[in-house]
Specification:
The complex is a heterodimer of chains A (290) and B (251).
Chain A (H helix, E strand, L loop, with lengths): L1 H47 L5 H5 L13 H32 L3 H15 L2 H16 L4 H26 L2 H9 L4 H12 L1 H16 L3 H4 L19 H9 L4 H30 L8
Chain B lengths: L4 E10 L2 E11 L4 E5 L6 H8 L9 E9 L2 E2 L5 H7 E4 L11 H11 L5 H14 L3 H4 L13 H14 L4 E5 L7 H14 L4 E5 L3 H7 L2 E6 L2 E7 H6 L4 H7 L5
Parallel strand pairs in B: 3-8, 3-9, 6-7, 7-8
Antiparallel strand pairs in B: 1-2, 1-4, 4-5, 9-10
Helix pairs in contact in B: 3-4, 3-6, 4-6, 6-7
Classes of the chains: A mainly alpha (290), B alpha/beta (251).
Chain lengths: 290, 251
């Protein structure tokens, strides 16, 4: 008995050491991945907070040399373009994801999966050029609409693939429960499977949204940007990342400060939008133990 | 009221492998029929053919005739069939994002019933029938169906199946994942329900069949070996293989 327990203790010492080592290594890794995000946010806060004021949020840019002015038009422009891109990207992405998960166990499904993964890897500027060719050239002018289409296309593969993954995680037994009640397939998919997977689907959608919100390259020759208020979807429209880009590469100190502020506003607005969607969509939902 | 089920020459396949080799069986109305047999004998496949659930599996096919009441269930739509023939599964499978109330009302709501008062009434009646009402009546809309215990979840699933007022209730090993107390409750419930429903229950547990069923069918390797009054099967079976199985020689 005594020797037995001694043996156990000796082994457990070594195991404890390894266990501790691995646990701390994992902890260190997680801290390291938080650092860049915090560093970026901290640096932005430091550089940008000083230039954020009511005027910055509500006014249009002033000519060089004239103090003040802001990015109000770019904030509104970003909202318009992102709204359009969500109209394009979310229904198509979720629709494709549903198809892939529920009916896509065939050659066509594999083709869609492959295409969507390739599209996900296409550099964003290439998407911009494609939309320039398809929409801007055809319409003969830059527009918020073209920007929305470009960002929408960028959102589709992320949303489609994450929706598929999330739907496949819903166990077959849940679908069978609905079928067993005489619920038709389409109704089961929308009201049971998609609802059960909704937390994950929303996360995937918000990731795609946040990524699109920060894209500059596809907007360069689609939305193009401008310096004034614009509510017309068919006109060139400003967007925060575009404005930040233009201001950051300018030679003027005042514009540099505004670029920092614009970047900070962009991050804050993305966080606010994503959080708001989460709060709204989680209302009335029950998170079960299963 | 329950209706009788008549099965003629039922064959079922998974891809090319035949799981049921031609089953003939008549199950009486308002009667509990137990299906017993060792793992892999086709008993689950059999009941899943009775509400056309088998064919939802990719590559699975069925041949033969199943008549429930006067209706051949393989003519017409599977959705209508499943509305008339309820099913309770082996593992409790409440809808995880729904409250207790919504779980029971799911079959009604998803099939377009909008009347609040009527839904309230049916939810209460179904939960009373499944002997869960007293335990959950104050939590109906506060708690998720998935937050209940395993035994309660299974009774919730039974209530959900009863809410759409089926004529037949199929139960695929409904108590195999449950503790003895919950199992006892489910068995009492089955006895209670046979007044209104025709019940077919698959079970791994021979004692359970003996306790709840009026008739018992013994399946082996995709064939129905013997089908008779439960008492006869367990005390004086006519087939040697049935006797070997119930006396524990195999399985």
């Amino acid at each position: 008995m005594t020797t037995g327990s001694l043996r156990v203790q000796r082994i457990s010492l070594r195991r404890r050491a390894v266990n501790g080592l691995v646990t701390y290594a994992a902890l260190a890794a997680s801290i390291i991945i938080i650092v860049p995000l915090l560093a970026i946010f901290g640096y932005l806060l430091m550089k940008g907070i000083g230039s954020i004021n009511w005027a910055f949020l509500t006014q249009t840019p002033k000519p060089v040399g004239e103090p003040g002015g802001g990015m109000g038009n770019a904030i509104v422009g970003s909202a318009i373009i992102l709204g359009l891109s969500s109209l394009v990207g979310i229904p198509l992405g979720i629709g494709a994801g549903i198809y892939l998960a529920e009916f896509g166990r065939n050659k066509f499904g594999n083709l869609v999966r492959f295409t969507s993964d390739v599209l996900n890897g296409v550099p964003s500027i290439v998407v911009g050029i494609a939309v320039y060719g398809l929409v801007v050239i055809t319409q003969k002018h830059f527009s918020a609409f073209a920007g929305g289409v470009a960002l929408g296309i960028m959102m589709i593969p992320t949303i489609a693939r994450s929706t598929e993954e999330m739907l496949l995680m819903v166990p077959r037994t849940i679908r069978e429960a609905a079928w067993g009640l005489g619920v038709p397939q389409w109704r089961t998919t929308l009201s049971i499977t998609l609802k059960t997977a909704s937390a994950g689907v929303i996360t995937g959608t918000m990731l795609a949204f946040a990524r699109a919100a920060g894209e500059t390259a596809p907007l360069l020759f689609t939305a193009f940007g401008n310096q004034f208020w614009n509510w017309n979807l068919n006109q060139p429209t400003a967007a925060l990342p575009l404005q930040v880009f233009v201001y950051a590469i300018s030679p003027f100190d005042e514009w540099h400060r505004q670029a920092w502020a614009g970047a900070l506003v962009l991050i804050i607005l993305i966080v606010v939008a994503v959080t708001a969607v989460r709060i709204v969509t989680s209302r009335g939902m029950y998170r079960g133990a299963a | 009221m329950g209706v009788g089920i008549n099965v003629r020459d039922l064959k079922a396949w998974f891809g090319v492998s035949e799981a049921l080799h031609g089953i003939n069986m008549t199950m009486g109305a308002n009667c509990v029929t137990a299906i017993i047999g060792p793992s892999g004998c086709g008993k689950s496949t059999y009941v899943r053919c009775l509400n056309r659930m088998h064919e939802t599996i990719p590559g699975a096919t069925v041949k033969g005739q199943v008549t429930v009441g006067d209706v051949d269930i393989y003519e017409g739509s599977a959705v209508d069939v499943r509305r008339r023939i309820g099913m309770v599964f082996q593992k409790p499978n409440p809808f995880p994002t729904m409250s207790i109330y919504d779980n029971v009302a799911a079959g009604l709501k998803l099939n377009g019933v909008r009347n609040r008062a009527k839904t309230d009434e049916i939810v209460e009646r179904s939960l009373r029938q499944s002997a869960l009402w007293d335990e959950v009546k104050d939590l109906l809309k506060k708690k998720s169906g998935a937050s209940l215990s395993g035994g309660q979840q299974q009774r919730l699933c039974i209530a959900r199946a009863l809410a759409v007022e089926p004529e037949v209730l199929l139960m695929d090993e409904p108590a195999s994942a449950l503790d003895p107390i919950s199992t006892g409750k489910i068995e009492e419930l089955i006895d209670e329900l046979k007044k209104d429903y025709t019940i077919v229950i698959v079970t791994h547990n021979m004692q359970q069949a003996a306790r709840v069923a009026g008739f018992t069918g013994f399946f082996l390797m995709g064939n129905l070996i013997e089908f008779d009054k439960t008492e006869k099967i367990f005390t004086n079976p006519s087939d040697k293989r049935t006797e070997d199985y119930i006396t524990g020689r195999f399985g």
